[in-house]
Design a protein that fits this description.
Blueprint lengths: L3 H8 L7 E2 L2 H7 L13 E3 L4 H14 L3 E4 L16 E4 L6 E5 L4 E5 L4 H10 L16 H7 L6 H4 L6 E8 L4 E4 L12 H5 L7 E9 L7 E8 L5 H11 L2 E8 H11 L11 E8 L3 H17 L4 E4 L3 H12 L1 H5 L5 E6 L5 H15 L4 E6 L5 E7 L6 H21 L24 H14 L13
Parallel strand pairs: 2-4, 3-4
Antiparallel strand pairs: 1-2, 5-6, 6-9, 7-8, 7-9, 10-12, 10-13, 11-12, 11-15, 14-16, 15-16
Helix pairs in contact: 8-10, 13-14
Bound molecules: flavin-adenine dinucleotide (FAD).
The site of flavin-adenine dinucleotide has 39 residues, from strand 3, helix 5, strand 9 and helix 12.
């Protein structure tokens, strides 16, 4: 709760109709997609300009109140959760797209622009914004930048970082910084833009961004393949990637398919079920390329890596195949999944997944464990579903016990314990799995420079 004097000084910055104190709003805006922490926000505020954000940060420094930057609240690590009486700063009313530069192929977005709106803006102007994932209808550009979001096309276009040409930020001490000015070339020392990308709201607030756009992709073709063994997946990846340009290379387990089919009331795409499936989207601008895709498919069948497959015959079929992958997260949300989002080098994946599979079968005998993810990036999402009769705290505790083994394996393979979902609250205590003690000490130092009073997203990323 805010004290009377804190509230009075806050009301001097924003009109009362943009300061919300009621329990419903505090619950709604005090949490992200995760359900492992009880939200305890003191207030939710909706600034509409950079000046207001700056005034809010200055107020927080004087009042000694923590700030949680809030985007579309689709985050999967508890980064946007207000768990200890912070004020949530929602950027959703700062959602203007302007400053389109067709020659530079950049566009200026306020932080609250929904990802899908930027994609649509690019399409409407004959261009393409390639960062895409199942939550792009709700997530915001500011949130995408703060988490360096990845998604389904990283294998072709990279992560959000690649698409940020410039940033305007309000630091934790209330300074407004213009980072990189949208330029293609600018070698003038430290590039703060890259520090803010992936900083999860711990250094300041992203208020505006200049985003890069590109050419629309050529025609593509979508295939779904069935695999008996996970360890063959990279052989399939190599076969297709050496012959064609991949737009996406995703995978999911049969258990994931079962859940998505049930949730979407859909029928199985292939007559025969196998433990794993790969969904590929390939650039196929000519009939030759499609022929090449079928040749690689035959080769994978001959090798026994793949036992069945389907090639989408229309846009509608391609969409339906994509739904099987993109619908998984929403399909399992009612089961309060415990998520791990790990990555290793693609070259290490076959050995890594064999070891991981053995470990999970041994340590999670009582739980449903679903696998899916952006396997072409070496990225696996492991989701453990909570049995209905388990209390949330007991379930979380059981999953955290297994984390020790999973993360020891990730460390052995020099992988990442959070490939794209960020660290937030839920993975904070595992940071040392992937980052050295020297790294973490420097991160603390950087944080203290930008946020000397520790008001920005306290308790997230670093303990
Ligand atoms: C169904 C589903 C599918 C998903 N698929 C993917 C995927 O494929 N790849 C992927 O990478 N992620 C995925 N996610 C996770 C999530 O969508 C991304 O992390 C996304 O970038 C979060 O954006 P947001 O606007 O919702 O941020 P929020 O959840 O609101 O916030 C995320 C973090 O960013 C900070 N933040 C938000 N806005 C700002 C700002 N303006 N300035 C500073 N800090 C800020 C918050 O404090 C928090 O730490 C998925 C989530 C769901 C629910």
């Amino acid at each position: 709760m805010l004290t009377v004097s804190q509230l009075t000084s806050l009301q001097a910055i924003l009109p009362v109709d943009r300061i919300h104190l009621d329990a419903n709003m505090c619950k709604r805006y005090g949490q992200d997609w995760t359900r492992y922490t009880t939200p305890q926000a003191a207030a939710i505020v909706f600034p509409v300009s950079i000046e207001e954000v700056q005034a809010l940060v200055r107020w927080a420094n004087v009042a000694g109140v923590g700030i949680v930057p809030s985007g579309g609240r689709t985050g999967l690590s508890g980064g946007a959760v207000a768990a200890q009486g912070e004020v949530v700063v929602s950027l959703e009313r700062m959602n203007r797209i302007d400053g389109f530069d067709p020659l530079a192929r950049t566009v200026r977005c306020q932080a609250g622009v929904i990802t899908a709106a930027l994609q649509q803006f690019a399409t409407d102007n004959g261009l393409y914004y390639p960062v895409d994932f199942a939550s792009s209808g709700s997530s915001q550009i500011g949130g995408n930048i703060a988490t360096n979001a990845g998604g389904i096309r990283v294998v072709r276009y990279g992560m959000t970082r690649e698409w940020v040409a410039g940033l305007t930020v309000v630091t934790g001490s209330g300074e407004v910084l213009e980072c990189n000015l949208g330029l293609a070339k600018n070698n003038t020392g430290y590039d703060f833009r890259h520090l803010f990308i992936g900083s999860e709201g711990t250094l300041g607030l992203v208020v505006e961004a200049t985003m890069r756009l590109t050419d629309p992709p050529p025609a593509t073709t979508v295939l779904l393949l069935a695999l008996p063994r996970l360890e063959d997946i990279m052989a399939v990846f190599h076969a297709f990637r050496s012959a064609l340009t991949l737009q996406a290379f995703e995978f999911f387990s049969d258990l994931a398919l079962t859940h998505v089919l049930a949730a979407e009331h859909a029928t199985a795409p292939l007559a025969e079920r196998q433990p794993f499936y790969v969904l590929l989207e390939l650039e196929a601008p000519t009939p030759d390329a499609e022929e090449q895709a079928l040749q690689q498919f035959s080769r994978c069948m001959e090798q026994g890596w793949v036992t069945d497959g389907v090639l989408a015959q229309s846009q509608q079929q391609a969409k339906a195949l994509w739904r099987l992958r993109e619908g998984i997260s929403a399909a399992i949300t009612p089961f309060t999944p415990y998520k791990n989002d790990i990555s290793v080098l693609v070259s290490q994946l076959p050995v890594f997944v064999t070891r991981l599979q053995a470990l999970l079968t041994r340590d999670y005998p009582d739980f449903e464990v679903l696998w899916y993810g952006h396997i072409g990036d070496g990225n696996l999402h492991i989701n453990v579903l909570k049995p209905v009769d388990w209390a949330l705290a007991d379930f979380q505790h059981a999953c955290e016990q297994v984390n020790e083994q999973v993360f020891a394996l990730v460390a052995e393979f020099a992988g990442s314990m959070s490939a794209e979902h960020g660290v937030g609250l839920l993975k904070r205590d595992y940071l040392a799995v992937t980052r050295s003690a020297a790294d973490i000490a420097l991160m603390r130092g950087v944080r203290a420079v930008f946020d000397p009073n520790g008001i920005m997203n306290p308790g997230k990323l670093l303990a």
